[in-house]
Amino acid sequence: MMAGRTEFIGGFVLGALVGVGLGILLAPQPGEVVRHRIKERANELGSRVKQVVEKGAERVREAVERGKEAAQEKREELLDRLEELEDR
Questions:
Q1: Pick from 20, 13, 14: which is nearest to 34 by CA?
Q2: Are 24 and 37 spatial neighbours (Cβ–Cβ below 8 Å)?
Q3: pTM above 0.85, yes or no
């Protein structure tokens, strides 16, 4: 599931870069203006990618925390069950 999301994000970023690059390069403007626009768009895209990565990292941290809590609950259940069996 996570691999699919990673591939989607990678494809999205690549598509965005290609689209922005082609749009800027094909627009009839002087080189200095084109370079400035490329830099601006790259910075914007970098910010968006950073946000997506941060959200993804937060979701992973939350999932790990839920996994730890679930594992601790199961551990306690198993220990309780083991204690019950030993008391028999």
A1: 20
A2: yes
A3: no
Q: Count the residues in the chain.
A: 88
Q: Look at the chain and report how many structural domains it folds into.
A: 1
How far apart CA 72 and CA 88 sit, in angstroms, is 25
Residue 26 domain boundaries: 2-87
| 15-72: pLDDT as tens digits | 887 787 777 677 777 777 777 877 888 888 888 888 888 888 899 999 999 999 999 9
pLDDT in the model for residue 2: 58
Cβ neighbours of residue 27 closer than 8 Å, sequence gap 6 or more: 34
Half-sphere exposure of 44 (CA within 13 A, CB side): 9
Q: Can you read off the two tokens belonging to residue 48? A: 């968006």
Find all residues with CB under 8 Å of 26, minimum gap 6, and list them: none
Compute the radius of gyration of the chain from its Cα atoms.
25
